[in-house]
Amino acid sequence: MKKIGFLSFGHWTPSPQSQTRSAADALTQSVDLAVAAEELGVDGAYFRVHHFARQLASPFPLLAAAGARTSTIELGTGVIDMRYENPLYMAEDAGAADLLSGERLQLGISRGSPEQVIDGYRYFGYQPSEGSDHADMARQHTEVFLQVLEGQGFAEPNPRPMFPNPPGLLRIEPHSPGLRRRIWWGAGTRATAEWTARQGMNLMSSTLLSEDTGVPFHALQAEQIERFRKAWADAGHDWTPRTSVSRSIFPIVDETDAAYFGTGSSQDQVGMLEGVRSRFGKTYAGEPDKLIEELREDEAVATADTLLITVPNQLGVEYNAHVLESLMTHVAPALGWR
């Protein structure tokens, strides 16, 4: 058995070829796809976060709205850029959205990806401290966020408060007790996966890895997961973490699928990203029997407990629900995922 979710970047464009032409479309369709996915038996609805872009950007209103329209599906992010976040305010938002959804949030966070603007986090009021860089700042924000999610008091109460206080130091409210164990880090290297384990976060392996050892993407990703699990065991945490990988998978079962994805599966891509040689995973496309054979060879998909299907959201809710239904019906059972 494997948990299967979808991951949407929430792109929108006013182009007449797009089914998602405005920010309102992207938001409302994201909720509608979560509803449709739950009805199909999909386990998770995950959303990417990008600032200064025609994409989804503010996750907590979206997660709360999706939580109000659904009842069982996990609701997550993949990922929130911690360079932009006030960790205390984020803890309040996350706690509220988690409680509203019945404690179904699975929050993926990270140091972020290449941006639309130069040092965009500075416009949000954040700047690395002297002697550190933007990645250090993201991890510093994360450290504070994880600490306050533990629910321990840290703030000195006013001796003459407007409302009565409980005894002792005060914590961030609302507090959702189980949320700390449902935080994931989006790791792009094997070393970062080991760091993630030491911090006690679940592993969300990136859609690209910012290193290349010459082996296929799925093999490098499987090694990343293996190193994460070993580091987790060495750290002595008292609970079992989860691991996820993302894939683009398109079963071709009708003429529309063939028109969109009939060229078949692609190959790994290797290129330079921010000056670092990086490896990108392939797209899987083909008739179900062919996909089943190809996916059996994917070592990372085999070892991860959670698979996120990246969806082309601008093709609309109906088509993306069709893609998910085809996967759940024609592919997942044959691979033992259902």
Automatic annotation (TrEMBL):
Coiled-coil features, chain-numbered ranges: none
Superkingdom, taxonomy of origin: Bacteria
UniProt protein name: LLM class flavin-dependent oxidoreductase
GO MF terms, alphabetically ordered: oxidoreductase activity, acting on paired donors, with incorporation or reduction of molecular oxygen
Entries under Pfam families matching the protein: Bac_luciferase
InterPro entries in the cross-refs: Bact_Lucif_Oxidored, Luciferase-like_dom, Luciferase-like_sf
Domain Luciferase-like: 9-259
Gene3D superfamilies: Luciferase-like domain
GO CC list: cytosol
Record-linked SUPFAM superfamilies: Bacterial luciferase-like
The species this protein was found in: Nocardioides bruguierae
Signal peptide limits: none
